[in-house]
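Structure, all two chains, one model.
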Amino acid sequence: MSTRQQIVITPYKTLGDSGRELWEYRDLFYFLAWRDFKVRYKQTVIGATWAVIRPLLTMLVFTVIFGRIAKLPTEGEAPYAIMVFTAMLPWYFFSNTLSESANAVVNNSAMISKVYFPRIIAPTAPLLVNIIDFLISFVLLLALMAWYRFQPSIYILLMPLFLLLAAITALGLGYLISALNVKYRDFRYVIPFIVQIGLYISPVGFSSQVIPEQWRLWYSLNPMVGVIDGFRWMVIGDSANIYWDGFFLSNAISLALFLIGYRYFMHTERQFADSL
Amino acid sequence: MPTACNLHNYILMSTAIKVENLGKKYIIQHQQQSRYQYNSLGESLSRGIKSLGKNLLHPFHSNTKAESAEEFWALKDINFEIKQGDRVGIIGRNGAGKSTLLKILSRITHPSTGRITINGRVSSLLEVGTGFHPELTGRENIFLNGAILGMHKKEIQRKFDEIVDFAEVEKFLDTPVKHYSSGMYVRLAFAVAAHLEPEILIVDEVLAVGDFEFQKKCLGRMEKAGNEGKTVLFVSHNIASIRKLCRVGVLLIDGQINLFSDIEQVISKYLTTSTPVNPCYKSKEEFRMITKQYFVNDASVLNSSENLCGTFHIGETINFKFRIKRGLLKKTMGGIKAALEIRSNDGLKIANIISSDCSFQIDSFDDQIGLLINIEDIRLYPGEYILSIWVGTLDSHETYDYANECIRFEIVSGGKLTTRNLPRNDGLFFFTPKWSTV
């Protein structure tokens, strides 16, 4: 009898309510993530291969253009290809999570207008399948290092921490845009734009050292700068010459974005069913 | 004081749902001419700049927003209390706020005012098969759909065999559901829903629109829940099934509770407030515009010269004309189909005329589409008949709008086919087949 749950529905929801509900629906989170995974790897045989081929090819192109033709400097002792591939991992993780998360509410609209569940689950679920993609690429990175006989730094053990940082950055923006997407459908077009431009304005194909010293702090306003620099430091080690002020500024911006995105999502979720 | 405490507990326990001052407000934008349901950012920005410009130019004018937006209360001042184990029927005409109340109780949408306290685990069935993914197998969809309906993984595992048995799909368990027939699909979807073990069950009647077998299963399942002492909330127009299932009734009229009482009293009140012969229907367009994807905007019964007419003789030409409009909610791709249901005045469904059965395809349209159904030789017995119009997806899985009992027409004795005065309700169909001696 004491297990009987009580639900109170009012125009506003408290933070405690949201937390309890999220726990109550943890299995749904798992099943939605699992659905994404199944569908991605079932529909296309290339699905899994795609996760490997795309960063590999991009890495090749960037290495040739920036490393060989433009002759930009690498980080520390690392081969250019490894430096680029190290950035490719968080970048693809970020951009894929962001794209899927930002469209999650609209794509699940049939569910949202017919069943109740904590809405935040929808844009968070893509995280899991992208972590799997990330891990596949990570194994690839290890193989690449073996090929170049490059020994990674001990900091590589901190990888989960840096992955979390990338996740926070992607989800913060994902929450914000998925909620905005319900109200303003043209935000759909913003995502491919962010992803495309972001690849070039983030230090993916080049080291952030090529940015003139006086601009580095400004450059770090891009939250992905901190994530990518962190990844490089983690793999290449102290010779990577990380700019810590910028790193922390970037992280602060990621965190702020996450909080804003989360708050905005929770604030507008009550209207989703009315406007989907 | 243990006794007082127990008493307090008893009162708490015996209330399943308590609704206090509940209200739901929609804002209707009048200035919005766009037929797209969603705002585009560009549009909003330009509107914002325009009004900013206006305010700068005429700083002393009153707020322009007030005239452009109008409040619409779909529900207002709703108060009621449902005891545990009660079986409650919610009755009302189209647009009375039934679906809105259901959606709020199911937590799909939020109320604008008030408070609802629900004691116990709730399952609401507004649709079956929510979240089914066509690429996934039957087995996978059982787990996914169960989780969406709020079941835990262990619970689904425990009931898995039962669900499969109930759905009769063992052989196809590992086939993607996109290869299922629509009957199998619905059976599987319903099987999952039927194995929920809620303490409070909220069911929408649109769920029971569908084939007869399914409807029967659905009602049977609810009856079972009711007999097990569970609290059941059932929204319906179907007096017969409400009478059979429910003990208490709520009559909603224009978003307010008109009567909350014994089911028989509520039904008789509902029947007396129902309209007499009325060959013409007009929806509450502004409201349906924001709550539906497609809706029946207006409907009428016409005679052979296409004039509005509510009374016909046997053998005459009868035309049903209605318009489907696109609401501002627009999300599902794919075609739509429509059905006309004809009921006799004692609630018996005597015809279900579906566009697809007549090999008629409703083409895609921008704003609205007008449809005319022509019956050249109506062979119904004298009596009063009630027409309902249904609009939904091609596979009938989803209902967009159900204009229940929107039109009434009458067949009277007389006309060229009859040679005697036919008593009312002495039959349903007036057939005049060929007779011969053999």
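The mean pLDDT of chain A is 87.
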